[in-house]
Specification:
The complex is a heterodimer.
Chain A (H helix, E strand, L loop, with lengths): L4 H15 L8 H25 L8 H17 L4 H23 L4 H21 L1 H4 L5 E2 L5 H7 L6 H24 L2 H11 L1 H6 L4 H27 L1 E2 L6 H14 L4 H17 L1 H5 L1 H15 L4 H10 L4
Antiparallel strand pairs in A: 1-2
Helix pairs in contact in A: 1-8, 2-8, 2-11, 2-12, 2-13, 3-4, 3-5, 3-11, 4-11, 9-11, 12-13, 12-15
Chain B lengths: L1 H31 L6 H17 L4 H24 L7 H22 L16 E3 L2 E3 L1 H23 L1 H11 L1 H6 L4 H27 L6 H15 L4 H21 L5 H15 L14
Classes of the chains: A mainly alpha, B mainly alpha.
């Protein structure tokens, strides 16, 4: 029996999620992998926008920031429980994406890149400057999700790091499942059609503006939830989370692994999240190496690592 | 009134720098239709290299000359190693390559130099000059004079020299230029070198006023890009007017609204231009060919 690419991707992710803890030498690795899964969630959103629809965003960390600060501030100011705060952040991000997406997505190429970059910088500027609300550059504490106590009530005892490993892993799996469904749906085909040629897609009756906006809003929700999880996991958030460099990191993860596929984006996140943890020199030369990776991948493997390897190993792409 | 004059003077000074960055964008865009997001890094390289060389004891003029030379070499390397190999790649790939180059260059500067702010001696001292109740530092005059000299020089270059006309011909129609025997590959390398030199010169001129550090490039590139967009992508006079306008808007925002949000002004201008005036003030209307 041959697996469809969709099921193969899901099975691979499930296997990694279930089996990776068996080879963890210490509980530190739970944290590293939880970070990988959280980043991979935002990157999956970018795969939808960049890989499927072919629209670049250099400001997606802005949505990560909205999600993160919603988790921090909504419980304090609106009295929302942490889980609802996450949903609130996602809705807010979707709304912002919907409102700014309409005009911004009329732009193409360079101008789209600049407009999204500007959006990201505006969000981080507000987070940095409105100290009365956000705590300014020093950041703000995030109230706990309360999952641990809930599980204890059910008789399940997990360490905090293990709890975050499973929470983020399951959310990622769910996010990947949704993205893969989208990829293989009529909407996904419409997105790929407009990726290849907007004019051709329009001629064939694809409502180009609507599908671009849809991809933008969906990817903003992915980024926002990733931000909320990151904030809850760290218990603390600073404006850096919405910064230009975080946006760039996310895009690099997507293009490194292969922006056209969910599994490519996942491996991009694994590499760029794990390497700085494993190699101290990577942390030191982070910017230099990020820039170098971006250039090298785009010059030599425009499709990204995973599709290029697939082609080399199997002589085909899925 | 004196207050307004003060804001206008400082706006024109930073605006002149943005105009030079915008001019760098324009030159490369005309030769290759690539928007070089690493343009701001040339300004950083010019400022940082001059600061370090002059701190090491070299006279300012020599340090500045070497800094501009270094930027030119980096500009040529950027074209040869990163942009040319990706010729014909989708726009998205070129965006990521030049953003990657920008981060790579600032990351390298972070290691080669350091993370501190730097400046060097102003060329003619720091004693402010009073004009109608407002003051201006002598270095601002150097900035304005330098920018005017660059724009005037380029005007002569494009209208009076064979090489300048070859660049214009390439900008108009690459294939046709090639057919009449213009070495368009060389024109592209030349444009990167020229843009790098102009960027580095801007860095040399402005660093005594604004200071510099390894990470100033991205912000400058954005302001310069805003200026180039406002003026109309590909038009040198547009770069001048657009850059100055961005500088003035920024200074007035800082003065009358909030200095925390002065950087937001440039983005709001970009967004406004993109939505309402996509071809800018002096640009040609863009039509997509199928």
């Amino acid at each position: 029996m041959r697996l469809s690419p969709k099921h193969a991707t899901l099975l691979l992710l499930l296997a990694i999620l279930a089996l990776a803890p068996l080879v963890f030498p210490s509980s530190f690795y739970y944290r590293v992998f939880a970070l990988i899964y959280v980043n991979a969630l935002a990157v999956t959103g970018l795969v939808i926008l960049l890989g499927f629809a072919g629209q670049v965003s250099l400001g997606h960390a802005g949505f990560v920031g909205i999600g993160a600060y919603a988790s921090a501030l909504a419980p304090m100011h609106l009295g929302l429980p942490p889980l609802l705060a996450l949903v609130f952040g996602a809705l807010l991000s979707a709304l912002v994406a919907f409102v700014i997406g309409r005009p911004i997505l009329r732009l193409k190429g360079y101008t789209l890149a600049i407009a999204t970059l500007g959006f990201g910088i505006l969000v981080s500027m507000v987070l940095r400057n409105e100290a009365w609300l956000t705590g300014g550059p020093d950041g703000v504490a995030v109230p706990a999700l309360g999952l641990k106590d809930g599980l204890k009530g059910l008789g399940l005892k997990l360490k905090t790091s293990e709890l975050w490993y499973w929470t983020s892993g399951i959310v990622l799996l769910f996010g990947a499942w949704l993205a893969l469904n989208l990829q293989h749906s009529p909407s996904g085909r419409a997105l790929r059609a407009l990726h290849d040629s907007e004019v051709a897609a329009k001629t064939l009756g694809v409502d180009v503006a609507r599908f671009k906006l849809k991809a933008f809003v969906v990817s903003a929700v992915y980024a926002s939830i990733s931000g909320s999880l990151l904030a809850l996991m760290n218990g603390f958030v600073t404006p850096e989370v919405a910064g230009f460099l975080h946006s760039i990191e996310l895009v690099t993860m997507a293009v490194l692994g292969g922006a056209g596929s969910v599994i490519g984006g996942f491996f991009g996140s694994v590499l760029l999240t794990a390497l700085p943890q494993a190699l101290t020199f990577f942390q030191e030369y982070k910017h230099l190496l990020l820039g170098l990776i971006m250039m090298l991948v785009m010059i030599f493997m425009t499709e990204g690592l995973v599709p290029s390897l697939q082609r080399r190993l199997f002589g085909r792409t899925s | 009134m004196a207050e307004l004059l003060q804001f206008l003077l400082s706006g024109v000074t930073v605006g002149a720098i943005y105009a030079l960055v915008a001019l760098g964008f324009t030159l490369i865009y005309n030769a290759s239709e690539v928007v070089n997001f690493a343009q701001g890094e040339f300004v950083m390289i010019g400022g940082m290299t001059t600061a370090f060389l002059s701190a090491a004891g070299l006279p300012i003029w020599l340090a500045a000359l070497l800094a501009i030379l270094a930027a030119v070499l980096i500009g040529i390397a950027l074209n040869k190693l990163a942009v040319e190999p990706a010729r014909g790649a989708p726009v998205l790939a070129l965006i990521i390559i030049t953003i990657g180059a920008s981060i790579f260059l600032s990351g390298t500067a972070e290691i080669v130099f350091d993370k501190q702010f730097h400046r060097f001696e102003a060329f003619s001292g720091d004693a402010p000059i009073e004009i109608g109740g407002a003051t201006i530092v002598p270095q601002s005059l150097w900035v304005l004079g330098g920018a005017m000299a660059v724009f005037a020089g380029l005007y002569l270059f494009f209208t009076r020299t064979l090489m300048g006309r070859a660049v214009l011909a390439t900008a108009n129609n690459r294939l046709a230029a090639k057919l009449v025997g213009i070495n368009t590959g060389f024109v592209m390398t030349f444009s990167f070198a020229l843009s790098a030199a102009i960027g580095a010169l801007a860095g040399v001129l402005v660093t005594p006023i604004t200071f510099t550090s390894y990470d100033v490039g991205v912000g400058l590139a954005l302001k310069g890009f805003a200026g180039a967009m406002l003026g109309g992508m590909g038009s040198p006079p547009g770069a001048l007017v657009g850059g100055l306008a961005i500088g003035l808007v920024e200074a007035l925002t800082a003065g009358y609204i909030s200095s925390d949000y002065k950087d937001a002004a440039a983005f709001i201008v970009i967004l406004g231009v993109l939505f309402f005036l996509p071809q800018g003030l002096f640009g040609a209307k863009q039509v997509e060919r199928v």
